[in-house]
TrEMBL record:
Gene3D superfamilies: Aspartate Aminotransferase, domain 1, Type I PLP-dependent aspartate aminotransferase-like (Major domain)
Protein name, as recorded: Serine hydroxymethyltransferase
InterPro entries, sorted: PyrdxlP-dep_Trfase, PyrdxlP-dep_Trfase_major, PyrdxlP-dep_Trfase_small, Ser_HO-MeTrfase, Ser_HO-MeTrfase-like, Ser_HO-MeTrfase_PLP_BS, SHMT-like_dom
Residues recorded as bearing N6-(pyridoxal phosphate)lysine in the entry: 224
Length: 433
């Protein structure tokens, strides 16, 4: 018994220690601030709060009600939206809810092409398929690594879908919201902008807010460039959509909505109101610096003609170095964490060893890295690609990472006496139990 217990503790400890020594470039991840993280540990993790604040099905939820209203208000303020729904437990749940609502009458949607980064939840393999909503992919423009606007507009006018989805997972270049929204609205279709990856960049105004560009609904994860707890959110100015969405999240997509994440979400929203612009602009500058240095070192970076990136992402073609799978594994041995990725020209069955690697700089930016360190990171990556022993490169990775351990653009516990006191009390309570 105790052996297994020890094993469990060992695994968690090993993970935590290891990941604090890595340069994490997974584009869909981030870290919370210490203050937000400390609040993640609270008793709400044990509770149910089905329904809406102050109209719950169980007793015992008065503080959950309060924090949920506060988190909702802060998200509305941050994104300048009239309505926010914070109960989806993930971006996929947020998409499911919105797709379900918008696809009630007409089961037809237009989605971004796979090459321009559509997420599995937009496809027949994911939630849209599971909801039996037919999807048509917009045409792809190879030149601009984006949706082909003219052809997409024609398609929208011909197909007359219930809704059009924008946004994606491989997303160095933002989709054209204005043009697509105009075409969609002309045939009575809604536009859903899936901001899972770029919510933090929108919060920090490095990207325009899709709701002000014509999107009717924005769905997102709250833990990618938005550095909050893992969860989802739906934002809109459309009262009718909001009403339907909030009647659908529960009971269709969540019962328990994991309320213990809401205090951390509220703190992260506050932090983004205060530090969001600084953070987002540094993220984009860092991504550009990483891309430029990789390019200068002779690595093929996608989108050279377009300035490589306008988001947190940098995408490289590593076919001549053995492919995405091989390079990702070697980089992991060097404590640089990335993921292999299909590139626009890869057939879908190339997923075992696709041409590309996708990287995001948001987490390392949070830890305080700037353009200079991005160049250093590029050189470390290139050394691995050139065949140097990853174990040797790892030594330098660990050394570099040691200098960047404090989370910036957010609050420390010591920033607020009350936060420190609360956390001490929480630990004491937990230890006595
Ligand atoms: C990550 C992602 C999602 C899903 O988010 P989860 O929070 O992981 O469920 C949805 N859409 C896009 C574009 C994504 O990249």
């Amino acid at each position: 018994m105790h052996e297994t217990l020890k094993k469990i503790i060992e695994i968690v400890e090993a993970h935590d220690e290891w990941r604090h020594q890595t340069i994490n470039l997974i584009a869909s991840e981030n870290v919370m601030s210490p203050l937000a993280e400390s609040l993640y540990l609270n008793d709400m993790m044990h509770r149910y709060a089905e329904g809406k604040p102050f109209k719950r099905y169980y007793q015992g939820t008065k503080y959950i009600d309060e924090i949920e209203v506060l988190a909702t208000e802060l998200m509305k303020k941050l994104f300048n939206s009239e309505y926010a729904e914070v109960r989806p437990v993930s971006g996929t749940t947020a998409n499911g809810t919105v797709f379900y609502v918008l696809g009630q009458e007409k089961k037809k949607a237009i989605i971004p092409p796979v090459q321009a980064g559509s997420h599995v939840s937009h496809t027949k393999f994911g939630i849209l398929g599971a909801l039996c909503i037919e999807q048509v992919e917009m045409p792809y423009d190879e030149e601009n690594l984006n949706i082909d606007v003219d052809k997409a507009v024609k398609m929208i006018e011909e197909v007359e879908p219930a809704f059009v989805v924008l946004g994606g997972s491989m997303y160095p270049f933002p989709h054209p919201v204005k043009e697509i929204a105009e075409a969609a609205h002309s045939v009575g279709a809604k536009v859903v902008y899936d901001a899972a990856h770029v919510l933090g960049l929108i919060a920090g105004k490095a990207l325009e807010n899709p709701l002000s560009e014509g999107a009717d609904v924005m769905t997102a994860s709250t833990h990618k460039t938005f550095p909050g707890p893992q969860g989802g959110v739906i934002l809109t100015n459309d009262k009718d959509v909001y009403k339907k969405v909030s009647r659908t999240v529960f009971p269709v997509f969540v019962s328990n909505h994991h309320a213990h994440r809401l205090p951390s979400l509220a703190v992260t929203a506050l932090e983004m109101l205060e530090f969001g612009e600084q953070y987002a602009s540094q993220v984009v500058s860092n991504a550009k610096a990483l891309a430029e240095e990789l390019h200068a070192l002779g690595v093929k970076v996608l989108g050279e003609r377009l300035g490589f990136t306008r988001t947190h992402q940098v995408v490289i073609d590593v076919r001549e170095f053995g492919g995405g799978s091989e390079i990702a594994k070697k980089l992991e041995e060097a404590n640089i964490i990335v993921n292999k990725n299909l590139l626009p020209w890869d057939p879908p069955d190339a997923i075992a060893n696709p041409s590309g690697i996708r990287m995001g700089v948001q987490e390392m930016t949070r830890f305080g890295m700037k353009e200079g360190e991005m160049k250093e990171v590029a050189r470390l990556i290139k050394r691995v690609m050139d065949g140097e022993d990853p174990k040797k490169v790892k030594e330098d990775v660990v050394e570099l990472r040691k200098q960047f351990v404090e989370v910036k653009y957010g609050y420390k516990l010591s920033d607020l006496k009350e936060a420190e006191e609360r956390f001490k009390k929480y630990l004491k309570l937990a230890l006595e139990l």
